[in-house]
TrEMBL record:
Signal sequence, renumbered to the chain: 1-22
InterPro entries cross-referenced by the UniProt entry: TRAP_TAXI
Keyword Signal part of the UniProt annotation: yes
Annotated protein name in UniProt: TAXI family TRAP transporter solute-binding subunit
Length: 320
């Protein structure tokens, strides 16, 4: 009788599990960035659009400290899909994600590039600071610990002959940078994001800003050492106090996914992302397109994403 009861219990569990699978619900977590940044705002709308168009999909949007942390979380299986900077993805594969460590983080593939991200270095509009080299010895927001902004800050400083040790670095997220800038606790702040950035808007409304550009020599140094940078223009009037167009370095926001993700699922995520763009209200949706998605990608594409791009006439390097 005990054996029969055990058998019946086992069958009940199996049937229950089969019923859950038959429901077709697939749960994924989308890693974004700070809640005032573009990653989070756009990510929330992408998640809603995916759930509206892919039957049985349930997406949890997870705010994080962005690129570095997202790579580690995807690599470790804590989240499934994430937005990261293309340079951070490159360094992860090269074993250069963290200083002093040669650990390789390659447990992810690319879905595609989303939009360019500008390295925006703000100072007060009435400040005497006109060149990056003048930041020596000053309090400067360089991004949250674990963020890709720190990497960009170090590289821009390097192009101007400085290091993090040359300044007084403040490890602040976007909203913290805005607050510190308004409260006169920092003289400058780096924010790498799409244009415009909500935190810079907030800061500039209280304390008008000017976005620093690079000299020709600094630009040559930066792009010689780091070929993934490209110029981006911030139109005059984007932020209070910034009256003229300014050219700054930019990388791209890259959507990545776990190597273990199901090929059909990733195919549907990719296809839906680019074929239902009109359902995304965020301004960055205007920059989403297949041609741009396959550019600036320094790591292999997930086979599911590569399949969609092939249907659109684009051959890309797919992971095994």
């Amino acid at each position: 009788m005990k054996k029969l009861f055990a058998l019946l219990l086992a069958l009940t569990l199996i049937v229950g599990a089969s019923g859950a699978l038959a429901s077709g619900t697939t749960y994924i977590t989308l890693g974004t960035g700070g809640t005032t940044g573009t990653y989070y705002a756009l990510g929330a709308e992408i998640a809603a659009m995916w759930m509206q168009n892919i039957e049985g999909l349930d997406v949890t949007v997870q705010p994080t400290d962005a690129s570095k942390d997202n790579i580690v979380y995807v690599n470790d299986g804590q989240i499934d899909v994430a937005t990261v900077q293309n340079d951070s993805a490159y360094y992860a594969y090269e074993g250069q994600l963290y200083d002093g460590s040669d650990e390789v983080f390659d447990g992810f593939y690319a879905i595609g590039s989303l939009y360019p991200e500008a390295v925006q270095l703000m100072v007060a509009a009435d400040s005497d600071i006109t060149d990056v080299s003048q930041l020596a010895g000053l309090n400067v927001g360089v991004g949250a610990a674990g963020s890709g902004t720190i990497i960009n800050a170090e590289q821009v400083l390097e192009a101007a002959g400085l290091t993090l040790e040359s300044i007084s670095p403040q490890y602040l997220g976007f909203s913290e940078t805005a607050t510190a800038f308004q409260d006169l606790q920092i003289e400058a702040g780096f924010i790498t994001s799409g244009i415009p950035n909500a935190s810079i808007i907030e800061a500039a409304n209280a304390r008008p800003v000017r976005i620093l550009t690079l000299t020709d020599a600094q630009w040559d140094t930066l792009t010689t050492n780091y070929a993934f940078y490209a110029p981006a223009t911030i139109p005059g009037g984007t932020y209070a106090g910034q009256d003229e167009d300014v050219t700054v370095p930019a990388i791209t926001a890259l959507l990545i996914v776990s190597k273990d993700a199901d090929e059909e699922l990733v195919y549907q995520l990719t296809k839906t992302l680019f074929e239902c763009t009109d359902q995304i209200g965020h301004a960055k949706a205007a920059e989403l397109n297949v041609a741009a998605a396959v550019e600036g990608v320094p790591v292999p594409f997930h086979p599911g994403a590569a399949r969609y791009y092939a249907e659109c006439g684009y051959e890309v390097e797919a992971g095994a």
